[in-house]
Amino acid sequence: MHVPAPPSASSDPADLSFRERRLLGRLVLPGGALAVALPLWLHAASPYLGTFDQAALPVLLVLLVLLSALSWTRLPLTWTETALVAVLNGFVVLRLGALLADSTLEAGTRAALLSTTLPWTVVALMLNAWVFPGMAALRLNFMVLCGQVLCMLAWWPQGAGPAPLYLMTTLIQLVLATLAVLSAQLVATRHTSLVTRLARQAMADAHTDVLTGLPNRRALMLALEGLAGPLTMDGPRLVAALVDVDHFKRINDDHGHPRGDEVLRALAVQLRGHQPSGGLVGRYGGEEFLCLLCLPDETAALEFCERLRSRVSREPLAGLPITVSVGVAVMGAPVHGPTLLDAADEALYQAKRAGRNRVHLAAPVAERYERQRTPVPVKT
């Protein structure tokens, strides 16, 4: 069962998140470019960078500056974020592989350079978790870990044997840091998933009638807004049909309230089976049910409700012969929900008054709405 959501407000959390991410990107990207430019400037004064850093850092600087400029354009945010993720992850893995493959480096120099890979790795992993949702970020960070392990395995046969302890310790720290971020991310993802499931369950419970399992009154009001919104002047009309069990108090008095509950549950099954595509049926309150659907005109609405009434009267519910009275109101765009429901309620009263077990159509609801809107002249 799908309940149409009400129109979103201008303060939609998704829009706020988008604006915040755009602002953070405009702040973080220049900061990253500055962090890359600083070691290049220091290296120009006193050379200390390795071969890979001398070649890769200028490219990384250019890319970060370019992404900083693009963050101020209308380019989709996902494009710049994905490009930033690809650049940093590629830099981290390639730097590790290049440092391990460079046979000209001494063990101490290699260990020192590898230790500077650690902050870059943590930044890349955290950026992945920030840009991508849940499991996607987890899979991406796992791929980074696999890239690190593959680089180490490729280097191991030629370098692991005589490698000093501090070099092995540096590599182990790099892997452990990645595993720590992955573990924290996994816990956070599982917690977020649990909270999301609980929130969705709470939302479903808040919009579901406990006895019948149908949408409750709150859900019906939301659905009324959702169904009325897309209607056009020359399109289908919104139909509200209030279905009430005849002599329900007598059922409770003669057979007990548990039997009355069984009748309501059985009627809910009947109404759900009679629900047309695109329509919605729910428990309006007590022994009243509300059907909301879009149909071409009043004739189609009457035919639908008459079929529903006839079907209920032919089949015993919970072992009892049951009849229903139906009040029908039809309104074209623009739809005013309270007026439509008031008209259906009045039509139901007329059906009860006329002898029950019948369908009654309300007077044209649009005219009723116009009368309500017309101010009453004040006598002077």
TrEMBL record:
It comes from the Bacteria. One of its GO terms (molecular function) is diguanylate cyclase activity. The chain crosses the membrane at residues 23-43, 55-75, 82-100, 112-131, 138-157, 163-188. InterPro entries: Diguanylate_Cyclase (IPR050469), GGDEF_dom (IPR000160), Nucleotide_cyclase (IPR029787), Rev_trsase/Diguanyl_cyclase (IPR043128). This is GGDEF domain-containing protein. Residues 236-364 form the GGDEF domain. Keywords: Membrane, Transmembrane, Transmembrane helix. It holds the Pfam family GGDEF. One of its GO terms (cellular component) is plasma membrane. GO terms for biological process: cell adhesion involved in single-species biofilm formation; negative regulation of bacterial-type flagellum-dependent cell motility.
